[in-house]
Amino acid sequence: MEVFNPNSKFAFMRTRKAWYAVSAVLFVVSLVALFTKGLNLGVDFTGGITVEAKFAGEANPETLRSSLERAGFKDIQVQNFGSSRDVAVRLPPPAAGETPDAIRGRIEGVLKAADPQVQVSRLEVVGPQVGAELRNSAIVALVTTLILIFIYVFFRFNAWQLSVGAIVAAIHDPIIVLGFFAVTGIVFDLSVVAALLAVIGYSLNDTVVVFDRIRERFETNKRLAPAEVLDQSVNQTLSRTIMTSVTTLIVVVVLLLLGGPVLHGFSIALVVGILIGTYSSIYIASSVALDLGLDAESLFPTRKKLALDDLP
Description:
- The longest helix has 33 residues, at 226-258.
- A hairpin with a 1-residue loop joins strand 3 and strand 4 (83-91).
- The protein is built from eleven helices and six strands.
- The chain folds into two domains: 16-40 and 131-298, Multidrug efflux transporter AcrB transmembrane fold (Up-down Bundle), CATH 1.20.1640; 48-126, Alpha-Beta Plaits (2-Layer Sandwich), CATH 3.30.70.3400.
- The chain has helices spanning 16-36, 43-46, 61-70, 100-114, 128-157, 160-184, 190-220, 226-258, 264-283, 285-291, 296-299, and strands spanning 40-41, 48-54, 77-81, 83-91, 119-126, 187-188.
- It is elongated and about 80 Å long.
- The chain has a four-stranded antiparallel beta sheet.
């Protein structure tokens, strides 16, 4: 199925500087949000207690906060999510020597006092040391992924310009997703890290498809201008890129709507990441490679013939 004619002539490379500006704005806004507002880290990273409960009727966050304070809890965050009957509670790490079972009993006692029919769907207790270890592991996973992407693309295409283009796109996408989470204040937990790694892989897959077509076009049209070759390559893979994104988004949006609160952050990260990844594979990766001097010689270096006088 072809959404776009493979012989279409959209001038992607001619407008690349305008799209650089769009990406630069999104990137800077994301970095500013990350450094000023920061991520709303979940208990996976900070340590603490997270509770999600569904009440039979409308729940009042302020009343629940007061009840938990009277029960001895401090620094409490209570908010509705999904509906007025669903409540999320976040508490700091438990005191030393207090067992998870004891904490569960105290919290459930407060909630059942407010509504005997309340259903606690999630109650997790994470220590601060475990949270710090998970945060460091997440950073290592992301950095390792980017390094391996550079190595893979370099050996796959034998052109450092394409490797750098792939890396720029691979950094561009998760930073903007992180910025989205910083601006919106959506809880950032381990499931979102998993979504970020999936987004990087998704974007790289789209990018490699375009790069494969670029190599094919250069091999058969070595005398064409590099910008024209890249435009042809992006146009010829455009239908595949858009159809893959649309079908993937259908599944992820259904997951967002029906997956429940546990998958909320994961699903949102995928939705934003797929949109940004599709954009970067069309407008960013190839454009960066072009501006770094990509041409047929980069992919298919000619072997210089030795003169007879130079032979031993």
